[in-house]
Amino acid sequence: MPNKKLSIRIDGALVDAYEGQTILQAARAGGKYIPTLCDLEGITPVGGCRICMVEVEGIDRVMAACTSPVQEGMSVKTTTPRLTQHRRLTVELLLVERNHTCAVCVSNGHCELQTMATNLGVSTVRLAYNFPKLETDLSHPKYVLDHNRCILCTRCVRVCSELEGAHVWNLTSRGINTRLVADLNGKWGDSKGCTSCGKCVQACPTGALADKGRAVEEMVKQNDRISALAMRRGAEA
Amino acid sequence: MLTLQQPRLEAGDQEFVDQVITDRKGRPGALLGILEAVQERHPNKYLPMATLDYIAAKTGVPLSRVFSVATFYSLFNLKPQGDNTICICRGTACHTRGSRNLLQSARLSLGLGLDDISEEDKILLTTPDGRFTVRTVACFGQCALAPVVEVNHKIRGHVNERTLQREIETIERESE
């Protein structure tokens, strides 16, 4: 390993880390769990979902573990009442923003957002639901895009541009109006760039991107395949 | 490599866009400058889809990225703009000084109706004859003059419904 070895503390335990690693990478290598939603091993972290927030001793504000680099001697806390409160609120806000109706979702039982909510004990939300009127794009012959389930984690955007090189997906607009778009806001099925590889579908943490023809609870995602592919690409490069 | 069919624009437009792209080649953030220059040249100050398509093909920037940039910044318009622009501030200071009423009266007097877009949304409406565009902005930074309305890129402070009405009438008279 050419990078300098560092020593950091995660929840009090000494963990070996290497210069250039993020807190999340060091924690995973050291067997420590930090919850994440937008992160997917092998593709560039963006720090979008704010679930992986951790406390670093000496710094008042919480930091995103997936984008913050490790520093010699830093002491990280991954679970504190403040962080749990913060993560719960983040998940609640995600649930409120779109129409996450688990009971009729293809990903019911295999959904990362659902699992996250369960793990954090979010059984109800304290805010009013937004109930946006969103479309479902059924134009692709093999896959379905349901904006109602999208949490804008941009995994699909990154997978499509970094691994497949097609860059069909991106986000449009800002704030509450942000949506996932294919090409120039066209139908997914009309996209000339889309290779129908399905990487975005496998990378999606929720039921927003799914195989066509799946019934409720049938869509089991295999995003470990995406990570494995990313690793192989990384090793080749 | 896929060979996609090259989109085309009208001769004069294409020449201009090509020139703009060549001028900015290799500069970081070139796309923003390209979009801005191309929009500025259009008589209706907007970016038609065909133009976005062409810029993407010419610069090699993915279509979705071009669309993302063009919709992220409120500077860019994807719909034709009217000859005259009335931009009403919906910031907090202007809101408390009655900018909602200004917006409603402007929409009503230009025949734009009130019911098609929810109040929270960014509003951008153009009259069918293409003479007026009514839009909103989050804040002009002129809160001391609240409520603020920008009429054809000139800031008007302490606007009330009557003065706004007069502005509109003046423009209507002048453009006849």
Biggest interface, which chains?
A-B, 19 and 18 residues
Work out the oligomeric state of the chains in this entry: heterodimer
Outline the biggest β-sheet of chain A: 5 strands, mixed
Q: Rg of chain B to the nearest angstrom?
A: 19 Å
Sheet with most strands of chain B: 5 strands, mixed
**CATH architecture group name of the largest domain in chain A:** 2-Layer Sandwich
State Rg of chain A: 19 Å
CATH fold-level assignment of the largest domain in chain A: Alpha-Beta Plaits
The best one-word shape of chain B is elongated
Superfamily (CATH H level) name of the largest domain in chain B: Glutaredoxin
Number of strands of chain B: 5
Strand order, main sheet of chain B: write it out. Answer: 2-3-1-4-5
CATH architecture of the largest domain in chain B: 3-Layer(aba) Sandwich
Proportion in helices of chain B: 40-55%
For the record, give the distance between the C-alpha atoms at the N and C termini of chain B, rounded to a whole number. Answer: 55 Å
In the CATH scheme, the class of the largest domain in chain A would be Alpha Beta
Number of helices of chain A: 6
How much strand content do the residues of chain A show? 15-25%
The number of domains of chain B: 2
The share of residues in extended strands of chain B comes to 5-15%
The average pLDDT of chain A is 94
Structure characterization notes:
The complex is a heterodimer of chains A (237) and B (176). Chain A is an alpha+beta fold. Chain A is built from six helices and ten strands, in the order E-E-H-E-E-E-H-H-E-E-H-E-E-H-E-H. Chain A has a five-stranded mixed beta sheet with strand order 2-1-5-3-4, sandwiched between helices. In chain A, strands 6-7-10 form a three-stranded antiparallel beta sheet. A two-stranded antiparallel ribbon of chain A has the order 8-9. In chain A, strand 8 and strand 9 form a beta hairpin. In chain A, 39% of the residues are buried. The model of chain A has no long low-confidence stretch (mean pLDDT 94). With 176 residues, chain B is of the alpha+beta class. Chain B has a five-stranded mixed beta sheet, with helices on one face. In chain B, helix 1 runs antiparallel to helix 2. The N and C termini of chain B lie far apart (55 Å). At the A-B interface, strand 8 of A face helix 3 and helix 4 of B.
